[in-house]
Design goal:
Number of domains of chain A: 3
Distance between the termini of chain A: 83 Å
CATH topology of the largest domain in chain A: UDP N-Acetylglucosamine Acyltransferase, domain 1
Strand content of chain A: 25-35%
Shape of chain A: flat
Oligomer: homotrimer
Largest sheet of chain A: 9 strands, parallel
Helix content of chain A: 10-25%
Number of strands of chain A: 37
Structural class of chain A: alpha/beta
CATH class of the largest domain in chain A: Mainly Beta
Radius of gyration of chain A: 26 Å
Chain lengths: 327, 327, 327
């Protein structure tokens, strides 16, 4: 057994006044109250901050044992507890979380990491256990690579990128040609992958290397778990892709798009900027108008779905019968 | 190359009488017949037990070379071979399989395993090669972790849990907020994961850690391969989730549910107990009535599907024309 | 940190005449021109070959800085550059790619690899870092296994097979029986996996071991990333399966089939030879006629999809009203 090279984690703590200062927040309550952590309304104790923004959770607010409530001026009227009062509680809560939970599992380059030839890895990069990196890989400052990630040859990764466990970057794109005997001949894939700054990629997601030119993930893009990005896909800056989605080869997704979970986007399409694809959307055509798009996803008991499926198959005939009636 | 620390596997063997006693079964045939293994009707040899329960396979029964047939009293009439006769052949067959194939790849803690700080791992737990475990992880008795699993910080695993290769537990949930410049700000995810007793999780499945409170998998839950469980999901005891499914953040799935393969359940929903979602179900609403639910999944040749898709788009107009005709 | 055991990669180079000879191609231009690599029209430099086959890209051809164009006799008329002229440019381009980019990341058996008992691995096989292999595994000549692959017990792999990172072969199939107390009892899975010659399997794909008989992947089959193949599935020779697809237990897929991305095929079905399933196809029935099949995948703005969904639910009633009008 190999010990992780992380040191002991010491949890920080702050007084209410210190927290208020760090957040630029107003506060009610004892400025010397010691706060040791963050939790939900349901689980927080008297030394913890909880977050209240959703008026539907007011019954939880009434029962909470939290020592301090982080909320807006308006909502703070519902609580007699110590409060931290800010304009955008959700953003302030992210700041509080980062104060109490600085990024973990850093081990710089763990002794089990395997790295190939001709790589440029910034000294500030953290690479966890059992990560394998091929040749000609570049990783910029402050990126974090979790255990069991694999990076193939010719992958370029920006700054502050986070790769979760099981991610595979730069595996061969799915490219074959039929040969004279009707068998599949592999098209070598040499394009590699380029990942912009501030990208986060979820566990077990795969991004294939391009055929000739690279597969490109724009800056600030966030990709969830078990997503498949095909070769030569290009994803515009600041787009968000939820889990179990797939984007097939050579498709271009615009900037500031949101792709819902389990969505499937076919190959060689162009999706313009600011498109939102609902969960389970099946995208078989390009989308050139920003907006929200859904696929059909009715959920019904079997007898009902069976009957409506029969009717769906009669739709053409029904249309003709309506036409006949009109004559 | 590192040798696995498993010892040589010696296959057990039993006489027919010994097997019958272990199963509480009646039997026909030579009580001293030596049985060395288990196989299908099609592949079994004269020293092996085969299983017969499905009357449709009677032609396979007639041709089998199996030495012994495990079956019910009624179906045993179809065979002149040695038989083991039980009330529930399928359950008895599981017992026979376990006798001949005790759980493999156990290596206690393989020397390549990496474990963080402050973990409590029961001495009976088996952890295979290249598993990486973070800080504050608890694993109860007799759990088995296959190679290349990653467990992040703050994960609590019950007894007799099986984690297959490539599983990632406790990676950061997919939580972001837009900041003032319209970029995505990461919400730290500190809730961890809690896995009940007797859970099995398939290869390359990912279960994200909760935002504040933990993601919870109830006891006896079985999850197949390549399933994505989002942050703060709760899955009730004894539910079954087939491969390639996704359950998005904060959704609660009840007890004794069955989720078919490639199903997608959106976020923040409640699915009550005893719900069966068919394969490829797209679940965009809560389900409060037990029962079976399907999404539309007709499969047709392209010309036919194209024509019906045109008609689907005319449905609103068709309805209005029917109304006009009725007037 | 462990160094990869790959040696330095030296890029080969050729003269135009040498390349022409290797391809059996005609050529225009200086036979002594030194060519050092391959790139796309958009990115190639004066020492590189680019490929031109799609007349739509003629504007890229006009602007390219490539030294040599690989194309057909007819299309070569559009370029005044040095040309390599062949009957099937795409196949010739694969040859050129293989000349300049011989298969990489070979390290024979990396020192971090873990191998179980009773395995037969051909000395020509390349196994990269952190691969874990169980007992009774056979791997034939010239197969390549990328980092972080896991192979369970009883897996047989043919010659020239490529397994990409994160692949899991032979994990337990998803088989359970309810016991007397309504809990799920695991059915041991002992059938293993058999992979034919010339198969390629994409990153993070999982192929489960069979219950009693093996799961079988035919020769020449190509499987993309994040695909789930259930226990006892059989896939016919030379079929192609795109990313994020799932094939559930005991289904047989024929030869020369193509399965589109994110397709889902339910269990215990038979899909005959030469079937093409479109992307996102949901296959809930056997298919006994070769041809192309689609599921319904219309993509619409939310208001429109909502209105048509209401109408879909009225289809049975609409059909009855048409019938009433006809009377």
């Amino acid at each position: 057994m190999i010990r992780a090279t992380t040191g002991k984690i010491e949890m920080p703590h702050f007084t209410l006044a210190q927290l208020a200062e760090k957040l630029g927040a107003d506060f009610h309550g004892d400025p010397n109250l010691i706060i040791t952590g963050v939790a939900s309304l349901a689980r927080a104790n008297a030394q913890q901050v909880a977050f209240f923004e959703n008026p539907k959770l007011i019954s939880e607010l009434e029962k909470t044992k939290a020592g301090v409530i982080l909320t807006s001026a308006q909502l703070s009227q519902h609580s007699k507890k110590a409060c931290l009062i800010v304009g955008r509680p959700r953003l302030a809560f992210i700041t509080v979380l980062n104060l109490f939970h600085p990024q973990k599992m850093r081990s710089n380059i763990h002794p089990t990491v395997v790295i190939g030839e001709n790589c440029q890895i910034d000294p500030s990069v953290s690479i966890a256990a059992n990560v394998v990196i091929g040749d000609n890989v570049v990783i910029a400052a402050n990126s974090i690579i979790y255990p069991n990630v694999t990076i193939y040859n010719n992958v370029k990764i920006g700054a502050r990128v986070i790769l979760h466990s099981g991610v595979v970057l730069g595996a061969d794109g799915f490219g074959y040609e039929r040969d004279a005997t009707n068998q599949w001949l592999k098209v070598p894939q040499i394009g590699g992958v380029e990942i912009g700054d501030d990208v986060e990629i979820g566990a077990n997601t795969t991004i294939d290397g391009g055929a000739l030119d690279p597969t490109v993930i724009g800056k600030g893009v966030k990709i969830d778990n078990l997503v498949m990005i095909g070769h030569n896909v290009q994803i515009g800056d600041h787009s968000l892709i939820a889990g179990c989605s797939g984007i097939a080869g050579s498709t271009h997704l615009g900037k500031y798009c949101i792709v819902g979970g389990s969505a499937m986007i076919a190959d060689h399409l162009k999706i313009t900027d600011n498109v939102i694809l609902a969960g389970a959307a099946m995208v078989g055509r390009s989308v050139d108008t920003p907006g929200v798009y859904y696929s059909f996803s009715e959920l019904l008991p079997p007898a009902q779905m069976k009957r409506l499926t029969v009717r769906f198959n009669q739709l053409d005939e029904m249309a003709k019968r309506i036409k006949a009636l009109e004559k």
